[in-house]
Batch of 2 targets.
Target 1
Amino acid sequence: MSVVALVPAAGRGERLGAAVPKALVEVRGEPLLIHAVRGLLDAGRVRHVVVAAPANLVDATAKLLADAGLAADVVAGGADRTASVGLALRHALGVIPDTSVVLVHDAARAFTPPSVIRAVVDAVEAGARAVIPVLPMADTVKQVDADGVVVATPDRSALRIVQTPQGFDTATLVAAHALADSATDDAGLVERLGVPVATVPGHAYAMKITTPFDLVVAEAIVLQTERSLVEQSYDRPGAARQAAEEGS
Ligand code: C5P
């Protein structure tokens, strides 16, 4: 089975307040995009990665990936996230026509553990047409009206925080993108097809890096991962790779 991963990274990322697109903001000296693509390839299940970059940064992004030793194609993104995924999908299917599983990953979730990536691929290969990693809600959530007045308190136990990569069998994702609709995630498009979306456990490290505060947390995640790799290579040679895979 051929698994390809699409990384829509063509947004401007204003919320981080940086002068560069969010995917190019650095954590521990490397752009989020590099961390994200390396994570996908290191999971050991992805055959090909296609990144959607801002049109004026396609060549620079391709050079960045090549300089980091990462094999990935870069295409120009579209007007919104859905369009960028659609363009990357079309490119991927041109390069690897026998693609059976497509992952759609957010560069902002650059530190998703390999174990989560593999769990998503496994679930699609086991027959799910769409799979998303999720976490339970720690906070109570309120629905408010236009004036900020609370109108409802949804049952927290039935709510989930959604992460990426989201995984799809190829035909399902192609059908979802043929809807000519837009959504904040690809599973949202698949839901409109009436296709069930399965879930697997997500991970705190797969957080979306959106604000300067998140960047501080991301630095801590990388530091923690590096430290446990070093410690375990002294304690138990061979355990370091396992630690990296588990995101510990
Ligand atoms: O802005 P937001 O955080 O919702 O963007 C989600 C993801 O979609 C980001 O990784 C962003 O780079 C990507 N995106 C894109 N093409 C666009 C707009 C956003 O690939 N035109």
Target 2
Amino acid sequence: MPSSDPNLTGAILGIETSCDETAAAVVTTDGQILSNVIASQIDDHAEHGGVVPEVAARAHLTQIDTVIARAMDEADCSYSDLTAVAATGGPGLIGGVLVGTVTAKAIASSCDVPYFAVNHLEGHALTARLTALDDGGIDYPYLLLLVSGGHSQLLAVSAPGVYRRYGTTMDDAAGEAFDKSAKILGLGLPGGPKIEALARQGDAASYDLPRPLKNKPGCHFSFSGLKTAVLTAYQKTIEPLEDQASIDQKKADLAASLQAAVAETLTSRSRNAMDQFLSDHTVTAPCFVVAGGVAANQLIRQMLMDLAHAKGFQFNAPPIGLCTDNAVMIAWAAAERIKAGLPADGLDFAPRPRWPLDPEASPPPGRGVRP
Ligand code: KG4
Ligand code: ZN
């Protein structure tokens, strides 16, 4: 396996294909984003009401060449300028990950540069270190809340590849709570942004939804009860209505109530993780980072920022556009791995549908393996 030189500098091509976005980006090892191209497949999946793995894989295959060509073009970069090529190696939908990794390996091999198989979760985890560069940067170790469509995790991040997981979800992820509730409300995809937009017209105090595990010890999450509560509330209070204006108002109220319940739950669990982080680490200026698609939510960002400041943590979240899936984070994770002197991956790397950041973490109660 080729080992990477920590002094290696230059442009890294990143590729992300783990779910329903085909993305490519060029980022320099010192953190300049030269291009960031994202082709969403949302229209391909809309008629099915959710992401269909086979449809996603075919769409990645159709789009990937164009997306990479655009990323290289917008970066004004030729293949001979590349220092390394990185692609999401998992976790994610295997068909899409295969398309991305095979393409990345082919480019790396033909350009004779190192290839990095990046853990998608590590991409989210390290993005804030890139976007905070102009603002003094973020040092290791820091506390991370990673909230996306498939994951809700609290982790101490000590270095690329070095994570300690404090908590994960026992059932649905936070993003799933948004996506499944959006489906119940008939809002369609993408669920989180649609709930957030509708919630602006609603009253968050209208529905008394559960706050799973709020104020209980520990850092694990549980969101499936919330989705069930939204379904029950919808069936009892909205389905029987006939007047469209009342239906619209009630839907907005339910969206606002759901958003508040998720935000309060995330805040309560993060508070416990901050205590745990401070007892595990001696740091003069502890930092709390929130990342992943759900971190795009303004109320959630605001509540977590208020919590962080109240607990003596600095707060950081990537800009909204780099919270949801993108390839900048994949290229940057490779840059971090290079800087840390970690080895590149062999061209025989096998995509990993499951790939935990902290393989040593014990599963939460009531749950088996969760990547
Ligand atoms: O990180 P991401 O783009 O993909 C995964 O790795 O899963 O996260 C997607 C998730 C979806 O569940 C989506 O509904 C949620 O992030 N999301 C949001 C918002 N934007 C995206 N949730 C709440 N509010 C938002 N503004
Ligand atoms: Zn993601």
